[in-house]
Design goal:
heterotrimer; A mainly alpha; B alpha+beta; C mainly alpha; A: mainly alpha; two-stranded antiparallel sheet; 20 helices; 61% helix; B: Phenol Hydroxylase P2 Protein; 4-stranded antiparallel beta sheet
Chain lengths: 509, 89, 330
């Protein structure tokens, strides 16, 4: 053959089509519903899966290549961190509380996302969507694993990290993230996608990773900066998938709009409640701070979010129902939550503390409308009690919201002096809620939310280790006097000071 | 007017990319933060392969952007020669 | 102030996370152990799935196979995300070099047209078989119980997607987009491929994660990969002048033998657990193995014609040996 034809170079789009969606086929030996049994029951109508647009066209060869490059960088830094006592570089041992919450609450969530996207990667009947979900699934596994690896060296030296596995399933405040992810995964593939892929990834993860990670950089925590940025480079792909997915669903059929809108309302609110944990970490647990939760919310939720919802308006989507209440809560939630944690610090696997005067001044300057009026006086009161040797302890257990599982410590949207509390009787049982939005979520699917595992109720019923606080502590693997309580006087505080002293003087051994 | 944005890790590899973005997007605003660079632009932002290659003097695969990408906002459109971000409203 | 922290010797408070000390003793844990053991939630699950309220969110009872501890299953390669990805990236470098070598020297154009046609007839429909394997492994990862069992299945799924993509590139190099189209038509309608497509669709209808593992990874791929890549491509077609094709499928041959070690280890652990498990495994093998053998026969015949029968029988003998070593006997 002497006339060797120059092959036409295929464009990226056409090549990617052949590498992915062309691989699938219409089954004929089995009915379609048998292979994709969960694709229809949520009521979402898809006419043509081929209309799916792949925003990033990564084939496996490119995926392996770029991800390996990221991982080589990541593990080089983690190894150096472990070998060189990198944990002593952090600004202050109080900062560790933020990492403990991260490992107990967020890393298991990454694993749920891994599992959930594996399921979505099988259940969606469109190849393009499946491939994107599968890649996200293994990325999420990566995130869980890099976090566990990065924080492993902290675990060897500090308390509060050692039992994150047991605490994932048993610790009361971890039922906030657990119920969030369990809720998403027990929804169908489309709801899962709108919940995690869109509402969480697109609207909210920037808030989790970007400001928190630059906070870690400010506080000398290279291990966390590294896993944060490394994970975030995958998130950009995930966010794009989430946005593409929602556009795709909305473009397929007008009947999808009300379903999607309801999911957006629900998952925005559930995500907001989950992230109040992050707000608390940002405002209170970073000894050196980059920005307040309120500022981060402004940049990453309000500015980006309004551009996004303006864009989605052409499909008839409006901003989530809780959007305005979220803005009202912006200047309150981190304070309300930290005050609650402080009172219950005997039952947390991280330390609480009263902020220093300088910290209180910083909070006053960042929250001029609210802090001096509502929260500083409470901290001053707690400080007076602590100084007098009568530290405030709330040994009563909080009512938990049946939906988000947060203790009902938040206030009315329009009255920060009044605790917000809602109730509803379902089948003769009374349920409590932290807000109208949480109550509405439950009212839509009561049969689902009455099943929730409520840690406080279980504790009262004696099913969590056999009744009593001591048994409960044993059951959650909480070491009393080490993992919990006030930072001042804690073993972490003493050890960190002593080890830093060894490093900065000639008395090191 | 809505802003699109992209955030990159700040390191040697992204220096040329940021320069290329500045050159191709005169209305873009570059903000340097701890360990990262944020670039905002009104409505639209483009990263061109050829401009990055002019800066580095070597071949540049746009997909390698993933290694240093932190986050972005806007719809993504990508082919071999450029990656653009935009809002449709 | 930058301080020299390396000069400090500090006694650690503990060696590893509690759950790893409980499993492996008070000593530092490996990255594989940290990444894999117990990281799936097990108790206090909040809600029943709305997609099937009979199931739990993580439900070991989805399988007929029972394990006292699913973490008894172990990946002998000790793959977690990073070790997996780095391994594949190295293999990808080799594959890239092989594709570049064949392309730059125009090696594929030197093959006789008939041979090229035979290679394409054999390999192009396998793009879809690999996609089926991707689907099945994704299901095992999604619904299987315990990370040491499920995480390698996600890797396997991504590998099968990678294989489908290598095959697509091979088709574009040896032929053109129409070669891929012809392969898909064959997959859909040619009698040669119907038993395999039928098998694939039937396995995609299964919901027992371990049965899917057996039907796809152990049985079907246990026959298909050694026969197609190691025997037909590496030996028979190479000898006929298609050695450049063997360069392009080097990943598949290596991958086949690497993953068999893992599959055998999983099978062995499942079988060793109980007589009931062995009975389940045997039942599944009885159900799927004869069908798999019938499905691969016409495919092998594309290259071997009349000798296909004996090649498949030889492979069945090897396969029986593998089962014996894994302890799968009644």
């Amino acid at each position: 053959m002497d006339m060797k034809v120059q092959k036409a170079k295929l464009g990226l789009k056409e090549k990617y089509r052949l590498m992915t969606r062309d691989l699938g086929w219409t089954p004929s030996y089995q009915p379609h519903e048998k292979l994709y049994p969960y694709a229809a029951y949520e009521g979402i109508v898809i006419h043509d899966w081929d209309k799916w647009e792949d925003p990033f066209r990564l084939t496996m060869d490119a995926y392996w290549k770029y991800q390996a490059e990221k991982d080589r960088k990541f593990y080089a830094i983690i190894d150096a961190h472990a070998q060189n006592n990198g944990h002593l570089n952090i600004t202050d041992a109080r900062y560790l509380s933020a990492l403990k919450i991260f490992l107990q609450a967020i890393s298991p969530g990454e694993y749920c996302a891994h599992k959930g996207f594996a399921r979505a990667g099988r259940e969606f009947p469109g190849v393009g969507t499946q491939v994107a979900c599968q890649m996200q699934s293994i990325d999420e596994l990566r995130h869980a694993q890099t976090q566990i690896h990065a924080l492993s060296s902290y675990n060897r030296y500090y308390d509060g990290f050692h039992a994150f596995i047991q605490m994932r399933d048993r610790m009361w405040y971890n039922s906030v993230p657990r119920s969030f992810f369990d809720d998403a995964m027990t929804g169908g593939p489309f709801e899962f996608m709108v919940a995690i892929g869109f509402s969480f990834e697109y609207v909210l993860t920037n808030l989790l990773f970007v400001p928190f990670m630059s906070g870690a950089a400010y506080n000398g925590d290279m291990a966390t900066v590294t896993f944060g940025f490394s994970a975030q480079s995958d998130e950009a792909r995930h966010m794009t998938l989430g946005l593409e997915c929602i556009k795709f669903i909305l473009e397929q059929d007008p009947a999808n709009l009300p379903i999607v809108q309801r999911w957006l309302d629900k998952w925005f609110w559930r995500g907001l409640r989950l992230l109040s944990l992050v707000g608390t970490m940002m405002d209170y647990m970073l000894p050196k701070r980059v920005m307040s939760w309120a500022e981060a919310w402004e940049i990453y939720a309000e500015d980006n979010g309004s551009a996004l919802f303006k864009d989605l308006a052409r499909y008839g989507i409006r901003p989530p129902k809780g959007w305005k209440d979220a803005a009202k809560a912006r200047d309150h939630i981190s304070h309300q939550f930290m005050l609650a944690f402080y009172q219950w610090s005997f039952g947390t696997a991280f330390h609480g503390w009263i902020p220093s005067e300088a910290d209180l001044d910083w909070l006053s300057s960042k929250y001029p409308e609210t802090f001096d009026r509502h929260y500083r006086p409470r901290w001053d009161y707690f400080k007076k009690l602590a100084d007098a040797g009568t530290q405030f302890r709330n040994v009563g257990l909080a009512k938990l919201c049946q939906c988000c599982q947060m203790p009902c410590v938040f206030t009315e949207p329009d009255d920060p002096t009044l605790l917000c509390h809602r109730e509803r009787v379902i089948d003769g049982h009374r349920y409590h809620f932290c807000s109208d939005h949480c109550r509405e979520i439950v009212e839509h699917e009561p049969e689902k939310y009455v099943q929730a595992w409520m840690p406080m109720n279980q504790l009262f019923q004696g099913t969590s280790g056999g009744g009593g606080i001591e048994n409960w502590m044993r059951w959650v693997n909480l070491v009393d006097g080490k993992d919990n309580g006030d930072f001042v006087g804690s073993r972490d505080q003493r050890n960190f000071a002593a080890w830093r002293g060894m490093a900065t003087s000639n008395n090191g051994t | 007017m809505s802003q699109v944005f992209i955030v990159l890790q700040s390191n040697e590899e992204t220096r040329a990319i940021v320069e290329a973005i500045e050159q191709d997007n005169p209305r873009a605003k570059v903000t340097r933060q701890p360990a990262m660079v944020r670039i905002d632009a009104p409505e639209h932002l483009v990263i061109r392969r050829t401009t990055v290659e002019e800066k580095t003097g070597g071949a540049f695969d746009l997909q390698s952007l993933h290694i240093n990408l932190v986050t972005l906002g806007g719809h993504v459109s990508e082919d071999e020669d450029e990656l653009s971000l935009s809002w449709n409203h | 102030m930058q301080i020299d922290l390396r000069t400090v010797t500090i006694e650690p408070q503990r060696h590893a996370y509690d759950h790893l000390e409980q499993r492996f003793g008070a000593k530092p844990a490996s990255r594989y152990q940290e990444a894999s053991y117990d990281i799936q939630a097990v108790e206090n699950l909040h809600y029943r799935p709305t997609w099937d309220p009979e199931q739990q969110l993580y439900d070991p009872d989805l399988s007929r196979v029972r394990m006292r501890d699913w973490y008894a299953i172990k990946d002998p390669r000790q793959f977690y995300y990073s070790s997996y990805t780095l391994t594949r990236a190295r293999q990808q470098d080799t594959a890239e070099a092989n594709f570049a070598f064949v392309e730059s020297r125009g090696l594929s154009a030197l093959m006789p047209g008939e041979l090229t046609a035979q290679v394409l007839a054999l390999l192009m429909p396998l793009r879809h078989a690999a996609w089926g394997a991707n689907q099945n492994n994704t299901l095992i990862c999604g619904y299987g119980f315990g990370t040491t069992f499920t995480q390698p299945c996600m890797f396997q799924a991504m590998d099968q997607l990678g294989i489908a993509q290598y095959l697509s590139r091979l088709g574009l190099l040896l032929g053109d987009p129409e070669s891929l189209g012809a392969g898909k038509r064959a997959w859909m309608v040619d009698a040669t491929w119907q038993p395999l497509r039928h098998y694939t669709e039937d396995t995609m209808a299964l919901r027992d994660p371990v049965e899917v593992f057996v039907a796809q990874n152990l049985v079907l791929d246990g026959l298909l990969y050694p026969l197609v890549y190691e025997h037909l491509v590496d030996d028979v077609l190479s000898a006929r002048g298609a050695s450049c094709v063997a360069m392009l499928t080097q990943f598949m041959s290596e991958w086949g033998s690497e993953t068999r070690k893992w599959i055998d280890a999983v099978t062995k652990t499942l079988a060793a657990e109980s007589a009931d498990n062995r009975a389940a495994l045997c039942d599944w093998i009885d159900r799927w193995l004869p069908r798999a053998a019938l499905a691969v026969l016409p495919i092998v015949a594309i290259v071997l014609g009349d000798q296909a029968q004996s090649a498949v029988e030889d492979q069945m003998t090897d396969f029986a040996g593998r089962l014996g070593k894994a302890g799968v006997t009644r």
